[in-house]
Amino acid sequence: MSKKRAGAPRREMLVNPGFIIILCVSVLTLLGISILFSATAHFGSDPYYFLKRQLIWLVIAMAGCAMVCLVNLENSKRYVWIASFILLVGLVLVLIPSVGIYVNGSRRWLPLGPMRLQISEFAKLGMVFALAVYLGANQRHIGTFWRGFVVPGAIIGVTSGLIILQPDYGMAALCGAVGFLMMYLAGTRLIYLAPTFVGAVSLFFLALYHSPVRWRRIMAFLDIEGNRADGSYQLWQAILAFGAGGVHGSGLGAGRQQMNFLPEAHTDFIFAVIGEELGLVFTGLVLVLFFIIFIVGLRHLSRAPNLYQYLLMSGALLLITFQALINMGVVTGCLPTKGMSLPFISYGGSNLVVMFLIVGLYINTAFAWRKPVVRQQERRLREIIA
């Protein structure tokens, strides 16, 4: 009996969702650092320039992750609205020409000493927190029009609207999709959500149509080979990279896409570099690791002690999953070209910090949640709605 009791905590730790997610994220991060160095070693006079900057951001991200692990999520609710207001102010400041940094037709960054902060990355997590707090505090009114639909819809609309003005259509769509799903999970009536979703998608495509650059991307996506020298050049090179890599890849540092054939290969299209240099085996590994994170996170939700924490972790899981799916869908030619980082792998400090903050939330809740009570919560929610 004593041996069984002694072995139980060890087995529990091995199957703890926090431990599994740490393992998956560690592998993805190490892979990202390795492929980043390979993809950027030939840039400029300093082959370690991008690697050093990414390592600095990684240290900051890990520190943020450690801090979130220690936070009491229930006590943190009192600071959510203050933080959300600060982030919205940041989204406004980004749009001011003398403050926001303008790069490649978009104004998305605020200066942070020698580095840049992409405020929309933090705003999307702030939106998830704000929705979780509001919807959790208004369970009794979740089926009503004003308090169950209009107010949370306004939170999503303001955040997405300010991000579209940068313009960053992909990030705005991500926020909208995650926000709507959170409202649906909370119990907002489909009679309100369905027509609003259709209207939002229609307006989104109308905005794309009136944006010449983005509409050309969609048209080029419909004929990738025919536009391979122009609008689909980046996507065409990514497809060539996957083909050149085959099953086993050409080897780290031996790919041709790192020689500037593929623009921005170290950021949004780094998945193609993995495909060329490490082959189908490692691209498959990336897919499997994200799938494990999703499944483990999904099963973890069954232990949520209340609606607030359930929605918070649902939104966090959706942010990682949707972002990974969008990035890999774009790079493999399944979706129109859109700049969006591959979590834990792409070069970029702001996204890396936000992803590690989410990991910190999972570690926090993995050891704080003990008993599966979500079924009781769902039953109570149905009673309230009825």
Structure overview:
The protein is built from 14 helices and 3 strands. It has one domain. A hairpin with a 2-residue loop joins strand 1 (101-103) and strand 2. The protein has helices at residues 2-15, 17-40, 49-69, 73-94, 119-137, 146-164, 169-186, 190-209, 212-222, 233-245, 270-300, 307-331, 349-368, 374-385, and strands at 101-103, 106-112, 115-118. 70% of the residues lie in helices and 4% in strands. The model is unreliable at 1-14 (pLDDT under 50). The protein is mainly alpha-helical and 386 residues long. The longest helix has 31 residues, at 270-300. It has a 3-stranded antiparallel β-sheet with strand order 1-2-3. Helix 2 runs antiparallel to helix 3 (49-69), helix 3 runs parallel beside helix 13 and helix 5 runs antiparallel to helix 12 (307-331).
For the largest sheet, list the strands in their spatial order. 1-2-3
What is the rounded Rg? Answer: 22 Å
| Beta-strand segment tally | 3
Uncertain runs with pLDDT below 50, 5 residues or more? 1-14
SSE-based structural type: mainly alpha
Main beta sheet, described? 3 strands, antiparallel
- Number of helices, counting only DSSP H or I runs of 4 residues or more: 14
| Helical content (DSSP H or I, runs of 4+) | 55-70%
How much β-strand is present in the residues? under 5%
> Averaging pLDDT over every residue, what do you get?
84
What does the overall shape look like? globular
